[in-house]
Amino acid sequence: MTEIAVRVGVAEDYEAMSAVFGTAMMFDPSGDDELGKRLFEPERALVATDGEEIVGTTKALTRDLSVPGAVVPAAHVTGVGVRATHRRRGVMSALIGRQLREVPEAIAVLWASEPGIYGRFGYGAATRGVSYEIDLHRVGPPVVPTRPGELGELTVDEAYKELPPLLRALQERRPGVSGRSELKWQRHLEDKKEDRGGRTARQILVHRDETGAIDGYALWRGKMNWQAAGPTNEVRLEELVALEPTAYKALWSYLLTMDLAATLAYGYAALDEPLLQLVTTPTAMGRRLGESLWLRVTDVPRALEQRRYAAAVDLVIEVTDELIPANAGRYRLTADGTTARCARTDDPADLTIPVGELGATYLGGRQLAEFALTGRVVEHTPGALNSATIAFSWPVHPVSIEVF
Ligand SMILES: CC(C)(COP(=O)(O)OP(=O)(O)OC[C@H]1O[C@@H](n2cnc3c(N)ncnc32)[C@H](O)[C@@H]1OP(=O)(O)O)[C@@H](O)C(=O)NCCC(=O)NCCS
Question: Could you read off the pLDDT of 197-240 as tens digits, one per residue?
């Protein structure tokens, strides 16, 4: 093996990068991937090469993310793959290390294929999601009556126009939600037959308020399944966004009471998903907890200034960061409900927080106090841990509703 080099991507790398990543993840990249090519940002990709051959890849996508009290730029990292012939020789470490030092955003986020991979680079699991495998015969939902015209369906062309404002509104309500450009929406609603896994075409269900305005939608597919004992059809819910309680209840009621269906699978529920309040038998929901969005703070003062805090706080935080030494040091964080200021200081630290734990708590879904229990976060001034834990928390849990 010659020496491994890392360089910035070029447009012509697209196919070779897709092949390396596809083989690493064990899927066949689609031959006709026009939208994928248009979404590719070569100048934000890094490739590792062994001679002429690409042996490792990573990409950063330009997207925004909702964080407590704001929507901010976040490098969306994806496409991390290393050829099996070159694994465990530091190729990923070289790619991720350089990427984190170079991204212009103050935070980077990703979905990890395995939870053991990214902690070593200072990523923390900031969002924990819940997946459901609901037994529709047992779950016992209330049946919500709807008025004529309240529920309806959209074509894909209508959805391009109608759905983006709802996602933006969701970003204002919950941290952890990634924004979508027009092109990204096209990709999201693309519905190639070969990607359906035997399910129906995607159905786009919407809820309208009394004025006719859409205030909620659900993207779902069905799968016919007949057993000797009768129908056991499967509903797969891909996304549900509801801005009002009436929309939320009506959409879920529709989905949970569909004729012939026995199960409903959904992979993107929040830890505090309100559905738990609506069903009578939560034990029939087949709940499984998992890490979803991992977050890495790449610029401490900028990151801490661009989110809002649940309570006023004035503390000196010592951040430790082995990968990006420029991040390490002491910072005074001063915030009230509406403003935040974070600057370097020589004052003694009230708390020490490793950068990974700063990432894990950044979206308000994990508690600093949780990490003090294992000694990862250390309190130096009595009371500092409580005030910081309350200030960093947020009234609603973050949720990431899309693997990117
Ligand atoms: C995961 C992957 C990118 C790692 O690439 P790599 O070049 O072998 O990684 P490195 O050699 O830089 O490994 C660095 C460290 O991470 C560890 N590591 C690598 N993959 C890991 C995994 N899946 N789980 C836990 N630890 C892992 C290594 O053991 C090594 O630890 P060490 O420093 O203590 O020895 C590669 O194995 C791969 O492509 N896997 C399949 C696709 C995939 O899962 N991609 C990630 C998508 S989010």
Answer: 999 999 999 999 999 999 999 999 999 999 999 999 999 999 99
> Which one, of 300, 309, 366, lies nearest residue 340 by Cα?
309
- Asked which of 243, 260, 291 is the last residue of a domain, the reply is 291
Domain assignment of residue 327, given as a range: 299-392
Other C-beta atoms closer than 10 Å to the C-beta of 12 total: 9
Judge if 336 and 365 occupy the same domain. Answer: yes
Q: Specify the 3-state DSSP secondary structure of 30.
A: coil
Residue nearest ligand 1's atom 4 by CA:
92
**CATH code, domain carrying 45:** 3.40.630.30
Active-site residue, 404 included: yes
For residues 179 and 79, membership in a common domain is answered with no
Query: Contact 164/304 with Cβ under 8 angstroms?
Result: no
In a domain, 368, yes or no: yes
138 and 44 both lie in a single domain: no
Q: What residues contact 273, with CB distance under 8 A and at least 6 apart?
A: 130
For ligand 1, is residue 218 a contact (CB within 6 Å)? no
185 and 257 part of one domain: yes
Question: Cβ distance 100 to 323 under 8 Å?
Answer: yes
Q: Are strands 261-269 and 233-242 parallel, antiparallel or unpaired?
A: parallel
How does pLDDT run across 303-354, given as a tens digit for each residue? 999 999 999 999 999 999 999 999 999 999 999 989 999 999 999 999 999 9
Residue 401 forms part of a structural domain: no
Number of structural domains the chain divides into:
3
- Please give the distance, rounded to the nearest whole angstrom, from the Cα atom of residue 48 to the centre of ligand 1: 14
- Active-site annotation holds for 123: no
